[in-house]
Design brief:
This protein has 275 residues and is mainly α. 75% of the residues lie in helices and 0% in strands.
Length: 275
């Protein structure tokens, strides 16, 4: 099976998530807005799902469990995209409320998260469509944690590297620096994987292209007045409909990807057509 070391890679992702979000989410979970739970719980379950997939794929006696977990991901994916949509809603609320960091980078955060949703939709759809091609399917599924890996890793950098620590509003540009460095590390990981497996690593190259688009959105969106107006609009829309929109996008992706990956049906008794 492809990527035999993938379970260890996923354990590394889990460790980064725990370290990065421990002070800002896990230890204060009772006091954070519901949007953080919608995203945090769904994203955590998704990472555990991919971890289980990567482990069971390496053991032939667990392939049935592998398939069962894969089918369960169809129902989890809408919550993943819904959670990201909830974060967009919360970010818009903070932008309207005048939060200093969001006034500086809010539209970029908003558009970057929208691109992340589009990236997840693209990658997961293709993982389902090509689920019978093991290298392609594995590549797309294993690339999903990379899409938002910058979020926990940038927090790790901000927590433990003095150069990137934020002590006040004057240090807010360091937040964007940690995000960009984290994205650069993601792209370096993708480059290493491609170097190891070459043509079989195309799914990671697709994900890398989407990450580059996300970086451009993060860096430049906040410079445009139209994006600031759109962020203000998002901030005034009730959060539940935005979550529901994200959930619906995910549900449609699960359905469309599953349908696209079905074996073509052959009518009973149909004669073979000579080549």
């Amino acid at each position: 099976m492809p990527y035999p070391r993938a379970p260890y890679y996923m354990l590394g992702v889990i460790a980064v998530i725990l370290i990065g979000f421990w002070p800002s989410y896990f230890t204060v979970a009772r006091t954070v807005p519901w949007q953080f739970h919608a995203h945090g719980m769904a994203a955590s379950l998704w990472v555990l799902t991919v971890t289980a997939q990567s482990w069971t794929a390496q053991h032939k006696d667990q392939l049935q469990f592998h398939r069962a977990v894969g089918k369960a991901s169809l129902f989890l994916f809408p919550f993943l995209t819904g959670g990201l949509a909830a974060i967009i809603s919360r970010q818009g609320e903070d932008f309207v409320a005048g939060d200093a960091l969001n006034l500086l980078y809010g539209p970029g955060f908003m558009l970057g998260t929208m691109v992340a949703i589009a990236a997840y939709v693209t990658v997961y759809y293709r993982a389902l469509k090509y689920r019978r091609k093991v290298w392609v399917h594995a590549g797309y599924m294993l690339s999903t944690p990379l899409i938002l890996f910058e979020s926990p890793f940038s927090r790790v950098m901000g927590l433990y590297i003095p150069r990137f620590q934020v002590h006040g509003p004057a240090d807010f540009p360091r937040v964007m620096e940690t995000i960009l460095w984290s994205c650069a590390i993601e792209l370096a990981i993708i480059g290493f994987i491609w170097w190891r497996v070459r043509g079989r690593g195309k799914p990671f190259l697709v994900t890398g292209g989407l990450i580059i688009v996300e970086v451009l959105a993060l860096v430049f969106a906040s410079d445009f007045a139209v994006m600031k107006r759109f962020d203000t609009f998002i901030g005034h829309v009730p959060a539940p409909p935005i979550w529901l929109m994200g959930f619906t996008i995910g549900a449609l992706t699960s359905w469309a990807g599953w349908q696209a990956g079905k074996r073509p049906t052959v009518p009973i008794g149909a004669a073979a057509v000579p080549a």
